[in-house]
Design goal:
The complex is a heterodimer of chains A (231) and B (308). With 231 residues, chain A is of the alpha/beta class. Chain A has helices at residues 40-47, 70-76, 93-103, 108-117, 119-123, 134-146, 164-179, 191-197, 215-220, 223-229; strands at residues 2-11, 14-24, 29-33, 53-60, 63-64, 78-81, 152-156, 183-187, 200-205, 208-214. In chain A, the strands form two sheets. Chain A has a six-stranded mixed beta sheet, with helices on both faces. Chain A has a four-stranded antiparallel beta sheet with strand order 2-1-4-5, covered by helices on one side. Chain B has helices spanning 3-35, 42-60, 64-91, 98-120, 159-181, 183-193, 195-200, 205-227, 239-252, 257-277, 280-297, and strands at residues 134-136, 139-143, 146-150, 156-158. In chain B, strands 1-4 form a two-stranded antiparallel sheet. Chain B has a two-stranded antiparallel sheet with strand order 2-3. In chain B, strand 2 and strand 3 (146-150) form a beta hairpin. The longest helix of chain B is centred in the first third of the chain and has 33 residues, at 3-35. Chain B starts with a helix and ends in an 11-residue tail after the last helix. The chains are: A alpha/beta (231), B mainly alpha (308).
């Protein structure tokens, strides 16, 4: 479904990612793990076309999305929930969701489905995004990405700084999306959370791709994670 | 004449200025708010509007109202198109970098100014107002314990000046409605809030930038077409509106449309009133002092949000 084929990327002259290859199948959660500064967020931004590739290709359903202008990557079917949520702060919940709905001209029933997943957002529908709590903002960021009916979903530390009930809500929605056949690339720092939700784990170190292991293997032998994460 | 009628007269003159200033400054503020581009060439788009109004009215001929009506539509459209072309050929190539676009728009200022000098010449030329009926204004006095209206000699304005105030208010309401109530306004506010996330949700940011730059310039041109029958069209007339527009957006808060309108009314009215009762120079000095105070005590402007 989503494939990174030897991608290299960075900021200006500074190269962060070097020849990273990954693939995420439909209905699979692949977790990207690595130390701070390893290149996880850079990989997400490179997939979305927000930073130019220095080499390699990104493919969605076999079609090269990295050849598209940045605004057409989302239209091809990739939803993005960035670290820090990236909400349109001055806009209301309804307007943030409207932007998501318009990305791929989703029919109105998609909005109803999304609001059914996050009933709290219905209560806050006319409220400005910046006035929501951290957990509600994360719900909104996730809901907005789901509004575009993604084939692939990029989640960059979606549970960072959230209280346990919110973490559970985000996890349940992520699992529901997997069940619907969405390919999910997840950046997550907490190994326990990864073991609960991921199908496979791909490690990244100093911008280079490392081992890719099934989550069961990681559960049996956590030393692999210790080697990459230093914990 | 007692002070009251003078105050009314000064307020009306100030309202004309506030109206035109608000349109010009809203264009500048819109461009900065959405694109983060400080457009030094904004005054030249104003000047082009006035020059084009002169050309159009000369070309159309006949009753002034017809030529003026055509100029009112054509000049902002042409100037907007020129701005879009400048955006696509200059600003886009600089990747909208805030520092480099300042230098580029300074260059654009000189190019537009010198090309206008070459084509239009150094003369200041008048544009006839579409209508210009003199309207006597009433004042009141207390006579035998009751209020009575009377018509002081010399207390008058023109129908055109009132129309400029009305047109300014109508266009500003239109801009507000566009930003708050339309799909394109929503898209513009999304780009303003977070350019990258706008891209990540399928918004063609560069196309939005080109449109915003065009709208900003068109608003300046429209302001110029409205004021040119009161002043005159001249190739150096862009400097004052640019300075005043910056004064307004600094006081109101760069990128804040309500702040810009508030500051335009404040500066316009105070300029009108102080100019009538004291001197235009004092009005400029006080406006500059206000800018200095805002920069020292509230650098984000009266309505601007402090950036993290």
């Amino acid at each position: 479904m989503l494939k990174l084929d030897r991608i290299s990327a960075g900021y200006g002259a500074a190269q962060v990612l070097r020849d990273v290859s990954l693939s995420v199948s439909a209905g699979e959660i692949l977790c990207l793990m690595g130390r701070n500064g390893a290149g996880k967020t850079t990989a997400m931004r490179a997939i979305m076309g927000l930073i130019p590739l220095m080499g390699g290709r990104v493919l969605l359903d076999g079609a090269e999305v990295s050849a598209l202008p940045a605004h057409k990557v989302a239209r091809a079917g990739i939803g993005y929930v960035p670290q820090g949520r990236g909400l349109f702060a001055g806009l209301t919940v309804a307007q943030n969701l409207e932007i998501g709905m318009r990305t791929r001209a989703s029919p109105p029933d998609v909005l109803e489905e999304v609001l059914a997943l996050f009933p709290r957002l219905r209560e806050r529908y006319r409220q400005q995004a910046q006035t929501l709590s951290g957990g509600e903002q994360q719900m909104l960021a996730t809901a907005r990405a789901l509004c575009l009916r993604p084939k692939a979903l990029l989640l960059d530390e979606p549970t960072e700084g959230l209280q346990p009930s919110m973490v559970a809500a985000i996890r349940d929605v992520t699992l529901a999306m997997r069940a619907k056949g969405v390919a999910i690339l997840l950046v997550e720092q907490r190994l326990d959370a990864v073991l609960q939700i991921a199908d496979r784990v791909a490690f990244i170190e100093n911008g280079r791709g490392g081992d890719v292991v099934p989550v069961e293997a990681l559960a049996r032998d956590r030393s692999i994670a210790a080697r990459y994460l230093g914990v | 004449m007692e002070i009251g009628p003078y105050l009314l007269l000064a307020t009306l003159e100030g309202a004309v200025m506030a109206s035109v200033l608000a349109l010009t400054a809203v264009g500048l503020s819109l461009v900065f708010g959405v694109m983060r581009v400080v457009n030094i060439a904004h005054g030249e788009f104003f000047m082009l509007g006035a020059i084009l109004a002169w050309y159009v009215t000369q070309m159309i001929g006949g009753p002034p109202a017809i030529g003026f009506a055509v100029a009112l539509v054509a000049a902002p459209l042409i100037v907007g198109a020129i701005a879009v072309a400048a955006d696509m050929t200059i600003l886009k190539r600089l990747d909208y970098d805030p520092e480099r676009t300042i230098v580029a728009t300074i260059g654009l200022l000189y190019i537009i100014q010198q090309l206008t000098l070459m084509g239009y010449g150094p003369e200041a030329r008048p544009v006839a107002p579409p209508f210009n009926t003199r309207l006597a204004l009433p004042w009141f006095e207390v006579k035998e314990g009751a209020l009575a209206l009377y018509w002081p000699w010399g207390l008058s304005t023109t129908s055109y000046k009132l129309a400029v105030i009305g047109a300014g208010v109508a266009v500003l309401l239109g801009v507000w409605a566009m930003m708050a109530r339309t799909r394109i306004g929503l898209v513009m506010r999304a780009v303003q809030a977070d350019r990258d996330m706008a891209l990540a949700f399928g918004i063609p940011v560069e196309r939005v930038y080109a449109m915003v730059f065009g709208i900003g310039a068109a608003l300046a041109a429209l302001a110029a077409v409205l004021i040119v029958p009161i002043s005159q069209a001249h190739y150096l007339m862009g400097a004052d509106p640019l300075l005043l527009a910056f004064t307004v957006v600094i006081i109101g808060g760069l990128g804040s449309l309500p702040g810009t309108v508030f500051a335009a009314i404040l500066i316009g009215l105070s300029d009108g009133i102080i100019s009538v009762f004291f001197s235009p120079t004092l009005a400029k000095i006080l406006a500059t002092l206000l800018v200095a105070l805002v920069l020292v005590f509230r650098p984000q402007g009266l309505f601007g949000a402090r950036r993290a």
